[in-house]
């Protein structure tokens, strides 16, 4: 089971404070073992859950297992409250009673077998309001589940705001996390995979407004990079900059004084031209089930044989897009599967800048970057920046040098991860040395693979890459 690390209760009023727990009614629990719990017992039990008092919770459950299904006035179960507060031991104690998790609870517990069983039986619940304040995707964003892709694979609406909930989309809900790291991870993931950074929110409190409320420059830059409207106003008529000024956050107000100077993602090459540099005419796949399209995108990561078979049956499927907003050719671009890339190109798929980098197509790289220099900020699937593809496409120093000629930064990051991290993962000491010699930070902290964070040196040591570890230390890495 995986429950997020300790988190404070939200300041947005999404959770009850301990002082309020003694004054609210509670729903009756199900499946009692002894059934002797009074209202006062239930109040005391939820107070212990929210406080993370594992020993008291365990003792009370030993006395009456029915307490495990106690809910608060909003209908949130003890398990949800423990997860919101990040109390892992308490959540485990609750599950040890034989607790049957609902759809959102399964997401919070990363119990994907249970999740899939419930989602298959009741797919409509994926976009319904849950007592946590929104949909299951909202719950994942709020608490910290890394299973976003699993929910999206079922076709859940990435920006669903059901009536009666918090009024926030999952992306905006992620900003209510007490963990700045999780807020950055979740916002990057959601906005890179189909969520609209400018989707309407309660009170006009946009994602960018939420980033300002956190006083987090990284989140502000991320929201702007994903296309946030800096001129959007909340119900009080305040822009994000106005809010920063009102909150006394001078650094944020300065940052937003000239939002046009902040980098913005440019994905204009994504669907523009095919390998012959002719305009792409995308087939209409509105009638093709998501599962069928997902089969194409999934196999496009590596499986040329299956891709050929699928495209032979229906050539239109070359334009398949997964629930993660990943075009089939983008799947093979970030795995460096050049034979699959070429297969898609032969069927009329677009040749974007990231795909050209992965393919080692210097002519197309020159074409795109001479045509539009702002494409140095292009992002491929899942927020992958241009420089990453020099590594992912096979580790070409020549390609990295070509990109550098167009001022593509060597330290382009996503969730803290850089091309240097990928050099370690791909065991590419030559390209790693080139990056370090051209100004790459030897100690960036990546949250691509976990929420604990890893530097390139930590990755190298963990994977037994002595040569890379020595190279990183020689360039100043100490952690």
Can you walk me through this structure?
With 479 residues, the chain is mainly alpha-helical. Among the domains are: 18-100, Serine Threonine Protein Phosphatase 5, Tetratricopeptide repeat (Alpha Horseshoe); 126-261, Alpha Horseshoe (Serine Threonine Protein Phosphatase 5, Tetratricopeptide repeat); 361-474, Serine Threonine Protein Phosphatase 5, Tetratricopeptide repeat, CATH 1.25.40. It has helices spanning 39-51, 54-63, 78-85, 88-95, 103-108, 112-121, 136-143, 148-152, 170-174, 180-192, 207-213, 217-225, 240-246, 250-255, 290-299, 304-313, 328-333, 338-346, 353-359, 362-371, 388-392, 397-405, 419-425, 429-437, 456-462, 466-474. α3 (78-85) runs antiparallel to α4, α11 (207-213) packs antiparallel against α12 and α23 packs antiparallel against α24.
Low-confidence stretches: 1-33
Q: pLDDT average, as an integer?
A: 92
Strand content: under 5%
Task: Give the second-level CATH assignment, the architecture of one domain.
Answer: Alpha Horseshoe
User: What's the CATH class of one domain, please?
Assistant: Mainly Alpha
Provide the structure class: mainly alpha
Q: How helix-rich are the residues, as a percent range? A: 40-55%
Largest sheet: none
